[in-house]
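NAD-dependent epimerase/dehydratase domain-containing protein
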Amino acid sequence: MSGIPKSPSIFITGVTGYIGGDAWHAITQKYPSCVARTSCLVRTTEKGDQVLARYPSIRLVYGDLDNTEVIEAEASKADIILHFASIEHVESARAISRALQRREKFQQATYWISVSGTDNIAWKDCENNTYGEQPSDEIYDDWDGLSNVTSLPDTAPHRDVECVQLAAGGTFVKTAIVCAPCIYGIGRGCGNQRSIQIPDLARYTLQKGHSLQVGKGLSIWPNVHVADLSDIFLRLFGEAIQNGTRASWNHEGYYFAENGEHVWGDVSSLLAREAQIRGLTQSAEVRSFEAEEADNQIDFASLFYGATSRCKAIRARKLLGWEPRHADIEAAVLEALEVETRTLKI
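Structure:
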């Protein structure tokens, strides 16, 4: 097939978010000229001003994910679509897919790169209500075990969105999904620079005077630094603009991002212990909650801290030459504690 133009048009969502903001920073550092050819979906003038302050030549498109006509129109004009805004919003994914169906019909080369999350592979604990229990030895991978990942049950988290993305690929339309785990590190984007899981747990520890674990606290999650996650997006973007053949796309275009794993009970204990050492709390207590009560303490706690999600990122390493540079999850936990302490002005 013929490739995309040498100066491709780009449509991006989620550029003021944690993942999208950092990924766009990485991309524009290497490919600064692409900014002037990019349209960016933003919800408000405040968000738009944030984007323009960093990227003055970008074209703003105002709307949210429910404005599917706007999304479909912009996607239909783009050679590369970077969809970072949500892993849960199926109608925006369908809007992009409809635009790509037309581009496929008219044989217009297009790349759609989107983000997902490894809570999808935590589906068994969600269905069996085995939160915080001793995890099984099952570890998903995106190479030999790829078919197991792309055929998860429909009840798996955000499976409906992934199905739309996986079905959108064709001869001229190429899709890739980057599945992010627990992300740590301070983002470099123009908007939100804060992750969710570890910072929320750190904030809870400081506010309540104790940390939290779900059940026995034995659940395991993979992790990656936000800059290393962005490097996968950067490498896929580079493959797209160069019409390269190293990357795999469509049903083989599924990339885990992972550089180690942690036990959530250990993270909770570290936060509680360090908060006490620093004089921020009176004790190093970690309280155990069952799933429903944990969700009353922190939004999505049962899923984020109680369900096990294990994977190996093989595809990006093999095909894209991805070599993550950050691997100190303990340092990341302590950094999050410091940031939340300053934010709360303790």
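Residues 90-105 form the longest helix (16 residues).
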